[in-house]
Amino acid sequence: MSLRYGYWLPMFGGWLRNVDDEQMEASWRYVRNLAVRSERIGFDITLPQRRAVIMKAGTDPSKVKVISDALAKVAASPEYKAYLKEQYATDDSYFAAADAAKIMEEDLAQMKRYAAETAAKK
Predict the structure, then answer these.
(1) pLDDT band at residue 62 under the 50/70/90 scheme
(2) Which of 66, 76, 119, 74 is nearest to 97 (CA)?
(3) Which residues contact residue 50 at a Cβ distance below 8 angstroms, ignoring those fewer than 6 apart?
(4) What is the crossing angle of helices 61-75 and 97-121, to 10°?
(5) Distance between CA 27 and CA 30 in Å, rounded?
(6) How many Å apart are CA 120 and CA 53, to the nearest integer?
(7) How far is CA 2 from CA 5, 84, 88, 90, in A?
(8) How far apart are CA 87 and CA 47, in angstroms?
(9) Cα dihedral angle (98, 100, 106, 107), rounded to 10 degrees?
(10) Is the pLDDT of residue 6 over 60?
(11) Model-level pTM?
């Protein structure tokens, strides 16, 4: 597994919140140019996306499994992989129902850690 880097790209004209005008252009031309330069030096452009089966609590587990299994087949198809590429998403963005809750709990825990770290720095 290779180490992959990514970056967040603000589309509102700047990175800094404590600078009134950092003179960063807020245009699609600027975004495109930055993305092209970033790809040239080795950054991947991806959008973090999660796809999972989320159903109403109490749904019959056998029904959840049928739908989850069907969506897993779709997620493995060449057409879906092409769609993901068009959306700048990664091949691993789909999570079966059995894995979804754990992944969402891990994401939430990470967000809480970031929030706590940010609050501690203020």
Answers:
(1) very high
(2) 66
(3) 93, 95, 103, 104, 107
(4) 80
(5) 5
(6) 35
(7) 10, 20, 18, 14
(8) 8
(9) 180
(10) no
(11) 0.51
